[in-house]
Amino acid sequence: MSTTPARKASQISRRKIEEVISGQPTSDGAGVRLTRYIGSQFLPELDPFLLLDFFESDDPNDYIAGFPSHPHRGFETVTYLLAGKMRHEDNAGYGGVIEAGGIQWMTAGRGIIHSEMPEQEHGRLAGFQLWVNLPAKEKLCEPAYHEYSQDQIPVEHRTPGVDINVITGTTCEGTTGPVKGVVTSPLYFDIRLSSGASIEELIPSHHAGFVFVNEGEISVRSDTSSDTVAARQLGVLGAGNAVHIEAKSAYARVLLVAAQVLNEPVARYGPFVMNTRAEIEQAITDFNAGKF
Ligand code: FE
Hints:
seven-stranded antiparallel β-sheet, disordered N terminus
C-alpha cells in the first residue's frame, strides 16, 4: 500500500480567507463608475497588488467618458474584459481593441501615456483592471504588452463542472496561460464551477493572492475553517501553499489571482508607483518634460 497520498496531504497547507472586501463604489478616468476592491480605504494594498477595479454597466452614461490620455510609471496594468470592447492607444503608436474574454497585460515600466476608451456607445461593458507592482530593479524597464483574445486563452476542463480559463501561470494539471515572463510570477485564473464542484490549486507560499467572486457563492476551505465569499466580494487569501474552492451555488465564477510579494517600500502618487518620494518627483519632472 502506498503512503504517498498521506505524505502529500501533510505538505499541503490550505489558505483560508483572511478578510472579505465588499468594494467601494467610486469613479475614475473621465467619470467611469466602478467598484474599487484594492486601493481603497478598506484594502489600500495587497503587495504586490496596488489596485483592483471592477466595472459593469448597461448604461453608457456610466462608462462612455472612458479613460482619456494619462501616464503610468513603475508598475503593470492588467485589463480583463468580460463584456463589451475597449480601445487602447499609446504615445509609442501601439493600439488595439480588447474584446470580451480578452486580456491586456501592460508593463508601463519607465513610462507610457495611453488612453482606454469604450469601443461602443451602448450595451454592456464589464471587466477588471488590476495593477501589479514591479520590483525596484524593473520599475524603469522598457514598456511592454501581452495582449490575447479569448480564443488564445486555454480553457482547462479539469473535471465535469470545473473549467478554468488560464490567463497566466500554470495550473497543477499543467495548463499554462499565454501571458509569460512577468517578473512577479503571477497566476490569473478565471474558474467556473457547477453546483457542488470544487477545485484545489497550488499557490507558492511566497505569493499573496485573492479570490473575486463574479457570480454565485463559494466556500474556501482550509483544514480548520470554511469561509464563504459571495458574489461581488473579494476574499484575501491567508498564508499557505494551496487553496480549495467549492461552489456553494448552482453556478459560481471566480477569479483566482496571486503573485510574488515584493516587500519593498511603496511611494504612490496617482498613476506613478515608485519606491521613494524622490523617484515620484522625478516621474513628475520627466512626464512634464515630455520624456515618457
Ligand atoms: Fe491606464
